[in-house]
Amino acid sequence: MAVHPIDYRYGSEEMRRIWDEENKLQKLLDVEAALARAHAKVGNIPKQSARVISEKANTKWVKLERVKEIEAEIHHDIMAVVKALSEVCGEHGKYVHLGATSNDIIDTANALLIRESLAIVERDLKELRSVLKKLAKEHKYTVCIGRTHGQHAVPTTYGMKFAIWLDEVQRHIDRLNQLKERVLVGQMSGAVGTMASFGEKGLEIQKLVMEDLGLKPVRISNQIIQRDVYAELMMVLALIASTLDKVALEIRNLQRTEILEVSEPFGKKQVGSSTMPHKRNPIGSEKVSGLARVLYSNVVPALLNNPLWHERDLTNSSVERVILPESFVLLDEMLKTTIKVLSGLEFFPENIKRNLYLTNNLIIAEPLMLKLTEKGMGRQEAHELVRQLAMKAFYEKGDLLEVVRKSEEAMKYLSEDDLESLKPENYIGLAPQIVDNVTAFIEEKER
């Protein structure tokens, strides 16, 4: 019976499968098999025993039900796996788990699960990057109002919005690649990290196991890989979530009825409300923003998992059983939803233009001030004059340019051609070139 929504509602089947009990068991068995092969290579156990253990270290032979049955009796999850594997290996079972402690197996298996999960996250980030690059290119000249403090500021372009997010997504891809160097590590170091149980060949055994599994060996541990590594992982996942939250929040705001410059795609048979048939709610973006809160909250327990008693205790274990699969599955859902929303984003050009002119040219106050300065008025004097004229236009609900035309002080410096040139569409600075710079940078990264 499914209880947590990650079991049935959120995330792709591909991501959920990584963290299901069957695959987690297989990864533990993979580590046990690699350990047996390493022992055989250094001459600690017979090669035939390593072959048998490797063959039987598979969920076709080691059944999840049997592992659970043993655990219910002995109350130790890894020893249950060891016993179940030993059972199917016959006389060779005596070599299973030789010299290892539980977290040698758990932490190394976790690295395998994290590697599979990060591959999906990275693939989705690259797909999101492609969607954003396309939007940035298509809309680098789509002039819209920029907003600061929720108020109309000066014009910008939709290309700038998308390029901002595009650049940020690229940083996440870079972070993931940097993170892999620290998080995709395993260990085979014994009870308190000294490798005493492996003897003089401990370092060689650890190296062989990690080479076998495609991981890097940890430099030092004290029975567990230090949890600053996991905390960094959770912070990077949460940081990715914050970007998706940022994108979703902007779309939700821009889809407000009063603004309605863009909208999420809305299916022909989609229902917006159980009582209001007209509703077109941004439910995809709202879901992304909501799930981001869970990702944020998982960072704190990850940080608290780093300080443990002495060489280790078990307080991190139960937490990680929750936050690792939960964070990856929810982030997977967020990424795929964001890609879907942006890929089908609907634009309303008439509303974009309407909002650009909504304040009756108040938004050209800055270029007006600069024009006065260009014509000889001092900058501070020009700022104060334009401020007064803008406040007059605001309270009288008039057009700023009309108010300027009636100002003797302003018109001493300005011509009618100057006023005609002060159009919002003319004041986007180097926005198109900035967008071009970002997309060119991204394309270089893609090569």
Describe the model.
This protein has 447 residues and is mainly alpha-helical. The chain has 18 helices and 6 strands. The strands form 3 sheets. A two-stranded antiparallel sheet has the order 1-2. A two-stranded parallel sheet has the order 3-4. Helix 2 packs antiparallel against helix 3 and helix 6 runs parallel beside helix 11 (315-343).
Quick structural summary:
The protein is mainly α and 447 residues long. 63% of the residues lie in helices and 5% in strands.
Task: Give short descriptive properties of this protein.
447 residues, mainly alpha, two-stranded antiparallel sheet, two-stranded parallel sheet, 63% helix
* Average predicted confidence as pLDDT: 97
Report low-confidence residues grouped into runs of 5 or more. Answer: none
Shape: elongated
Quickly give the structural class: mainly alpha
Topology:
Elements: H1 13-18, H2 21-41, H3 47-56, H4 64-74, H5 77-89, H6 102-138, E1 143-148, E2 151-157, H7 158-183, E3 185-186, H8 202-213, E4 216-217, H9 228-254, E5 262-263, H10 283-304, H11 315-343, E6 346-347, H12 349-356, H13 365-374, H14 379-396, H15 400-405, H16 408-411, H17 416-421, H18 431-446
Parallel strand pairs: 3-4
Antiparallel strand pairs: 1-2, 5-6
Helix pairs in contact: 2-3, 2-5, 2-6, 2-8, 3-5, 4-5, 6-7, 6-11, 6-18, 7-9, 7-18, 9-10, 9-11, 10-11, 13-14
